[in-house]
Amino acid sequence: QVQLQQWGAGLLKPSETLSLTCAVYGESFSSFYWSWIRQPPGMGLEWIGEINYNGGTNYNPSLKSRVTISVDTSKNQFSLKLRSVTAADTAIYYCARLPSWYSWFDPWGQGTLVIVSS
Amino acid sequence: ENVLTQSPDTLSLSPGERATLSCRASQSVTSSYLAWYQQKPGQAPRPLIYGASSRATGIPDRFSGSGSGTDFTLTISRLEPEDFAVYYCQQYGSSPRTFGQGTKVEIK
After folding, report:
1. Of A59, B23, B59, B90, whose CB is crowded by the most CB atoms within 10 A?
2. Is B44–A60 a contact, with Cβ atoms under 8 angstroms apart?
């Protein structure tokens, strides 16, 4: 059964770069899409972007200028970088799998709370 | 972008009652590529329904989904204590992938 485990820095200052990594266990990394989603405290969900095992990416236009998602197939990991963060980027960040492009998110990682504060 | 609007924002019901949640899309959802998720406090969302009406693995049959085009519904036939949570719809037929704002089902 596939499991996603994520980690990264939880406290950032404005203008810094958010960096999170998600490791995939129990399943081949190939043939799937891997995604990041975020949720500001007490609010709804926002899709950030996704990557396939070949490195092809698709980003939310609202964040595209600041986001990079990358993959390391040798480690079965994928990563998120979000540049020039502000307080508006404070959120719980989740990684998730997409079995195909036309697919729902399943499963999800445990979530990482990232706070941006001076 | 396909904007999803859920209603109501909050649903106050008692255990055993029927819950009906609505999700309306600003554009037709391609091939009914719509999912529903349940989220409890401190937990990641859990998929309930995909393809508008198919239950995800392990989801009890009191959960059902219906709809097509721009109007979708999640029904919980008889609320169990563990069903009180926030529910989100999400479309995956077009990019960017979008979520509704959520409906909170609370105990009356």
Report:
1. B23
2. no
pLDDT for the residue B81: 97
pLDDT tens readout for residues B15-73? 999 999 999 999 999 989 999 999 999 999 999 999 999 999 999 999 999 999 999 99
| A110: contact with B, CB 8 A cutoff | yes
- Whether residue B92 and residue A104 make contact (CB cut-off 8 A), yes or no, is yes
Task: From A103, A107, A114, select the one nearest A23 (Cα to Cα).
Answer: A107
Under the banding of pLDDT at 50, 70 and 90, the label for residue A29 is: confident
pLDDT > 90? residue A1:
no
Is A102–B92 a contact, with Cβ atoms under 8 angstroms apart? yes
For B1-102, where are the E strands, in sequence order?
Answer: 4-7, 10-13, 19-25, 34-39, 46-50, 54-55, 63-68, 71-76, 86-91, 98-99
DSSP string, A15-82: T--EEEEEEEESS-STT-EEEEEEE-TTS--EEEEEEETT--EEE-TTTTTTEEEEEETTTTEEEEEE
Structure tokens belonging to residue B85: 């949570």
Chain B touched by A42 (CB under 8 Å): no
B99 contact residues in A (CB cutoff 8 A)? 44-47
Q: Is B96's CB within 8 Å of A62's CB?
A: yes
Task: Give the three-state DSSP class for B108.
Answer: coil
For residues A55 and A42, give the distance between their C-alpha atoms in angstroms, rounded to a whole number.
33
